UniProtKB/TrEMBL annotation:
GO cellular component: cytosol; nucleus
Native species: Phoxinus phoxinus (Eurasian minnow)
InterPro entries, sorted: Papain-like_cys_pep_sf (IPR038765), Peptidase_C19 (IPR050164), Peptidase_C19_UCH (IPR001394), USP (IPR028889), USP_CS (IPR018200)
Pfam family for this entry, one: UCH
Protein name, as recorded: USP domain-containing protein
Gene Ontology molecular functions: cysteine-type deubiquitinase activity
Biological process according to GO: protein deubiquitination
Length: 72
């Protein structure tokens, strides 16, 4: 995902998602781009695994809490 705003190109670099019934209970997970910029990682408690863009977009589409962009 890329956006051009404020005179530059930005792309999505990470997402924090919340899974649960309210912000006071549930579980937070994060998805971040790896250093190559083409793959995504899912970080949940003590586990880190590779994941797909379709999984990332499905999670933050329903449960996105914070999105992080980097200027390209």
């Amino acid at each position: 995902m890329e956006a051009s705003d404020c005179g530059g190109q930005y792309r999505l670099a990470g997402v924090v998602s919340h899974l649960g019934s309210s912000l006071y209970c549930g579980h937070y997970i994060s998805h971040v781009r790896d250093f190559s910029g083409s793959d995504w990682l899912e970080c949940s408690d003590a586990s880190i695994k590779r994941t797909s863009w379709s999984n990332v977009s499905r999670n933050f589409g329903k449960n996105g809490y914070m999105l992080f962009y980097e200027k390209s």
